[in-house]
Design a protein that fits this description.
Nucleotidyltransferase, domain 5, 26% helix, single chain, alpha/beta, 5-stranded mixed beta sheet, 27% strand
Length: 208
Amino acid sequence: MALRTLVIDTATAACSVALFDDDRLIAAQHEIVGRGHAERVVPMVAELPGGGRADHVLVDVGPGSFTGIRVGIAAARGLALGWGAGVSGYGALSLIAVAAMTDMPASDLAVVTEGGHGEVFMARFAHPFAALDMPRSLTPAAALAELAGGVAIGGGTRWLAQVDPAFPVAEALPDASRAMLLPAAMRALPAAPFYGRAPDAKLPAARA
């Protein structure tokens, strides 16, 4: 019997869900919602065949929007608990990279996404598909220096173009419908937030 998997992706400005039997896509939805993930993700799941019910739930754990990551993971954990399903995670930048390398298998590339506080998240990937490093939070100038003229895609390329107007902007967001392109090991991360940098909310410092 095929393993039915629900994929939830709310780590960026996109909100997407997809339903698979093994690696065969059954149905998917993808919307650009900005900050509206909490209002859209559960209704989007409910609109999938069978209400999205699955044997396993796969969720984007980041890095990306702190709120978006938490919304997606909470939804994934809640649904998995209610269904008695398994739950695991994958990385946002890895999904963008594997989709791009599948569509344009030409060269190594970096994925650069918006990181907040004027920074970007960046990770590099080698052809045909292998992660060269972990996502890191960098200033746009530092990211440009590391790229050294290399190819980059993702929403963060807009920030790089603000530093170097000649840098090509290549928008790309994660899409749940491409999740099964990831190697199995990259779909087996803990369903826990990977923020890429410290969250904005911090505990007060202890008094001396």
